[in-house]
Design brief:
Largest sheet: 3 strands, antiparallel
Strand content: 15-25%
Order of helices and strands: EEHHEEE
Helix content: 25-40%
Strand order of the largest sheet: 1-2-3
Radius of gyration: 12 Å
Number of strands: 5
Oligomer: single chain
Distance between the termini: 37 Å
C-alpha cells in the first residue's frame, strides 16, 4: 500500500470536516467501484470512505459552506 497522506479538508457540498488518509487516486478508484446505491449522496460516499479507512470524518462541529465560510 502507498504511503498514507493526511490532509485536513472540508467537503465542498455539506461542509463536513474530514481528514484524507489515502492518496486522491486511491479514493477515486474506491468511489468508482462503489455500487450505484452507495453513491446516492456525498455524505453516503463519505461514510463509505470513512468505514474503509480512506478518510476520517471529524466530529468537531466545524462546517464550511462552498465559499469557505465557517458556520457554527
Amino acid at each position: 500500500m502507498r504511503d498514507q497522506v493526511e490532509r485536513s479538508l472540508h467537503a465542498k457540498y455539506g461542509g463536513v470536516h474530514f481528514t484524507q488518509l489515502q492518496p486522491a487516486q486511491a479514493i477515486n478508484e474506491f468511489v468508482r467501484a462503489l455500487p450505484d446505491d452507495k453513491r446516492d449522496s456525498i455524505f453516503e460516499v463519505m461514510e463509505e470512505l470513512d468505514r474503509a479507512g480512506y478518510i476520517r470524518l471529524e466530529n468537531d462541529e466545524a462546517w464550511f459552506d462552498p465559499e469557505g465560510e465557517q458556520h457554527p
